[in-house]
């Protein structure tokens, strides 16, 4: 009622209250003053400011000592707002002829602390009225109100089911309120995991507000009505697994002991809520049961133990000779249909291995692997390390290099274990580089040298392993004598043709040399007879030499 129609300043507890003097400063102002009114209406002056001397004086009022500040425009500020500052303050402006007054009402607000649920029950029992806890909100002004909630919905009082009692206490020294609301409640099984909370509704400078407590969940006790048995292991069980059976009752607290019934056993085995079987075998397949210790409320489940057997013949490390036969079999026995596949040297094979005549490329590490697709982790594998041995086999080829200054000789070698290769040279000439070997793959590799023979030479390739020593030689013409190149695909007939052509070239060269010798003798016999004849002879001999060189060049071109 005091504030009705009057200017009101809303302040927050502990903040600074600012009250402007809402009067126009008149001409001839002498001074300004502030006062507040006691409940009985008597005034108490607290601040004075002269308009001429500009000095400020504060009255000796204990409640406002060191808390006041009066500005030049006569705005009064009060530090550290208190509940006791809720008064009617008056601004006075005084001239020689008049005194003007303008009242201001101060309202102070204090937000309560976040409410807490104290003295909480350790647990709740169904069908029993008991104290759940107390919701406490401290230091509020003005006083607030408390409301209880369950799962976000208001709990309304219900006789003998929901009983709420609210108490409000005021601190005489501060004037602040503390609200305490107790809740008595009859829980049900459905209250398991229910969230209880309380909300305080209070007033602030801007209107009504609320603040909520942290939710609390209570342990609700209720009796067991049903027993359930379950397998805690993976959904599919295989031989060698550990299997854990768990029996549970739906009461709270749950039963701590049960009876477990194992296939083939007539009496139950007393145990805690779990029963463990280690390293199970296929004969553990069957029906399992559990019950309360008084043999009531029984439940059952069926367990299937899957198995997988694999036999590989032969297995381990097997050594065979090239060309031999090797039968291989991989047989499976399983609880379900199994898939079988083969792996060779980390690469999956499209078909099962079959060896009617072993080759070097058949050597390697073979794995027969089988899995049950429905059973995670159930797979078996066995290995076969196949070694194919063979004596060294050699084939030599030769090729004239593009620069026509050297020839490449290659020794193609087969055999296992890998043969060691040596080269020997018969005749003049020098090996331009050391022997280079290609990668050893499937029992095959090549050793290569580059040579520039000054005359015909014989190259010998020697390959030797633990089984045998093999020697093969190849004739190579001098570098200035062209010859057909040989590749590893060329047969022996081609080699003979090259040798025949080389012999023909040598015969032609020898014939030309003999013809030149005869021409020289004829020249010597006739030179004495006459110069003219001698000239004719020289001319003829010159023609013969030219024809000889032309013929030789033609033969080289043909070659």
TrEMBL record:
Localisation: Cell membrane; Cell projection, Axon; Cell projection, Dendrite
Domain of life: Eukaryota
Keywords: Adaptive immunity, Cell adhesion, Cell membrane, Cell projection, Disulfide bond, Glycoprotein, Immunity, Immunoglobulin domain, Membrane, Repeat, Transmembrane, Transmembrane helix
Lipid bilayer topology: Single-pass type I membrane protein
Predominant place of localization: membrane
Domain (Ig-like): residue spans on this chain: 103-212, 223-304, 323-385, 392-472
One GO BP: adaptive immune response
Pfam families the UniProt entry points to: C2-set_2 (PF08205), Ig_2 (PF13895), Ig_3 (PF13927)
Transmembrane segments: 504-526
GO cellular component: axon; dendrite; plasma membrane
Keyword Transmembrane helix: yes
Protein name (Swiss-Prot/TrEMBL): CD166 antigen
Naturally occurring in which organism (per UniProt): Calypte anna (Anna's hummingbird)
Lineage: Eukaryota, Metazoa, Chordata, Craniata, Vertebrata
